[in-house]
Amino acid sequence: MAGNRSTLVLSVVVAALAVLPLTGVPDHHLRLVAEILILGVAVMSLDLLIGYGGLVSLGHAAMFGVGAYAAALFATHVSPDLLLAIPAGIVAATLVGAVMGALVMRSANLFLLILTLLLSQMVWEVIFRWRDVTGGADGFRGIPQLTLPGGMAIDSGVDLYYVAGVLAVGAYLVAASFVNAPIGKALVGTREQPIRMTALGYSIPRIRLSVFMVSSAIAGAAGALYPFVNLYVGPQVAHWTMSATLVIMLVLGGVCTLFGGFIGAAIYLVFQTHVSSYTDRWQLVVGLAFVATVLFVPRGLGRELHQLLRPLGLGEPRVTAETDKKGTVR
To answer: What residues form the membrane-spanning segments (predicted)?
Structure first.
């Protein structure tokens, strides 16, 4: 019953997203919502690491940035076809995530955070210095519009909004499937009882590598669409400050709630877009909102919404790691 209600809520959200352009929302507002959806997907992918795996990473921007540059380069030099450029970004980000996951999968806590930060900065250094390919500090310009398989260009805010909406729904379904699968519950088990999971025969490094690859693929999908919002991508998308921004969005929206990433991204980007038109110190406003969230809503707005909806059976399913007598996670 709870699963049916959750499906109903998802259907209502998708329907609301579908009819939003019909309400007369200006094109530039639709582009803002598309950017919120894209960054929300990136934050959701980070939530798989931090929220469900307890793996605090400051290197997630590397996968996001690699996905962005790979898709932009592919669209420019090979084909702007949506069904080719986006997968190119996903593959590139997954490969980087696999390498990073292989290097850090035996680390934890502070060592994991520092390692992911260093590896991410190495990726940024390559992007920043490889001027002939990436444009260096000036960024990569001249990106063509994405096209559908039939050749129609995705050149308006409405088109981009719908593509971002499809991406968000698809990424959410993938992330939810992973979380509710046995490996997702095993991941939660490694977060809560790593010694017991090892004693039961589970390979914690292998589980961590798996979540790194899935998280990287989702982040790469978001990054692959990101350059086509403004037809430009700069090295800041792979910088550690971008990783920190994603963490801030995650805390604002709520850790361990997949939809919380979209809430956090919306709060941050709305402040960035509208508050910055009144003052250059909009980051101070974001900082105050972040401090207020930590003090008064420590679980994040998404977790509070989750708690309100759970008695009605409308929240996301609660993920727990239980083992039977044979030690199998279920």
So the answer is: 31-50, 57-76, 82-103, 110-130, 160-188, 209-229, 241-270, 282-301
CB of 43 closer than 8 Å to CB of 249? yes
Length of the chain: 330
Host H or E run for residue 280: none
Dist CA 288 CA 311 (whole Å): 31
Q: What is the pLDDT of residue 91?
A: 97
Residue ranges covered by each domain of the chain? 8-236
Q: Strand, coil or helix: what is 312?
A: helix
Residue 78 identity (one-letter amino acid):
V
**Confidence band, pLDDT 50/70/90 cuts, at residue 243:** very high
pLDDT digits (tens, 9 = 90+) for 94-129: 999 999 999 988 887 888 899 999 999 999 999 999
Indicate yes or no: pTM above 0.70.
yes
CA dist list (Å): 182 to 155, 170, 196, 229, 292: 41, 20, 16, 36, 36
